[in-house]
Design a protein that fits this description.
Length: about 350
């Protein structure tokens, strides 16, 4: 499955979720849900057809919505025409001119029902909503499995992330979200964010030595104070060391704030989303020479309340910046020292 096709399926999944999430018991939300389910079907159907068009000009077997005499005049974007071509491609894949595809019948029924809702103002009942959602989900799932051998639940934007460590963290967060383990999801998103952030900065695998923090300042000033004491001075200038420590800490924090704002712009993130994520999610730290990570919760994770919508927003944010980061060209190779050797040397 290519990147463009995968993006279509991810968008279709998002439309399905958006339709269901928007239900609030009112007629407008029910109507909007049916329309979104139909748009999800159309999005996945067209993505599949672009990737797997029928090879033959003829349409094997019967059961098509568009009569043969009218096929030439059809527009490519007309959904019944898209369904007909998908059926032809489906039969070609199975080398069976009479192959039936129940999921396609459900998609056609959903589209017909959507027309009554959209054009005639029919208000779906709760049972109708469930039926249309199942029809859309089953059809999109059938597209993924029949044409690409994938399960719909496997398809997410994380598959587009090239860096394995970042991708693994996002996938782990998705699994935690799906399993209802929001603490795990939050921790993995914090780790994924730091991995993507570090890789963006250095264009190299994560290296904690490249990060300067307040703790680094404190270690350095303690070492300085210890050096004075070991030198045999009768009186260690502790006040001066503490002043230096406070000054350096303030400079580091100011630098961090400036880098945060710069990253928000260079990573293509909304500044509000960037600040929200940094303030809401715990910080993650890697250890030199180890693949282990620690997540610094300001309070007990079991007592820190994250709503599911917050985790979904965080997942979308981290995935977006990871994808944006990988579009940047790699850092140029360092110039060799000295002039290149002349001829004959």
């Amino acid at each position: 499955m290519g990147e463009q096709c995968l993006s279509g399926f991810v968008a279709a999944r998002g439309l399905l979720e958006r339709g269901t999430a928007g239900l609030d018991g009112t007629p407008p939300s029910a109507i909007a849900a049916v329309i979104l389910y139909d748009v999800a079907v159309e999005t996945a159907a067209k993505a599949t057809l672009r990737a797997m068009p029928p090879a033959a000009a003829s349409f094997p077997g019967g059961g098509y919505a568009i009569p043969q005499a009218k096929r030439v005049a059809q527009q490519k974007e007309y959904l019944p025409w898209v369904f007909d071509r998908l059926l032809a491609s489906y039969r070609e894949l199975r080398a069976d001119d009479q192959a039936e595809w129940p999921a396609l019948r459900d998609a056609r029924d959903l589209h017909d029902y959507r027309n009554t809702v959209h054009h005639h103002g029919t208000v779906p009942s709760p049972q109708d909503l469930d039926r249309q959602r199942f029809r859309a989900t089953d059809f999109i799932g059938s597209l993924a499995s029949s044409f690409f051998g994938r399960q719909l639940t496997e398809l997410s934007r994380a598959m587009l992330v090239q860096d394995k460590e970042v991708r693994d963290a996002i996938v782990a967060a998705e699994k935690g979200l799906a399993d209802g383990d929001l603490t795990l999801a939050v921790e993995q998103l914090s780790i994924g964010f730091e991995l993507a952030r570090s890789a963006f900065r250095s264009a190299q695998p994560f290296d904690p030595r490249k990060s300067l923090s307040v703790s680094d300042v404190r270690r350095a000033t303690r070492a300085l104070s210890g050096g004075f004491q070991r030198s045999g001075h009768a009186r260690t200038p502790l006040d001066g060391v503490r002043d230096l420590e406070r000054l350096l800490e303030a400079l580091v924090r100011r630098s961090e704030r400036a880098e945060d704002r710069l990253e928000a712009l260079t990573l293509g993130a909304q500044a509000s989303d960037y600040v929200w994520f940094r303030n809401r999610f715990p910080r993650a730290h890697g250890y030199l020479g180890s693949e282990s990570w620690s997540v610094n919760w300001t309070s007990d994770p079991s007592e820190t309340r994250f709503a599911r919508d917050e985790v979904i927003r965080g997942l979308d944010f981290v995935t977006t910046i990871a994808l944006h980061w990988q579009q940047f060209p790699p850092a140029p190779s360092p110039e060799p020292d000295g002039d290149p050797p002349g001829p004959g040397m």
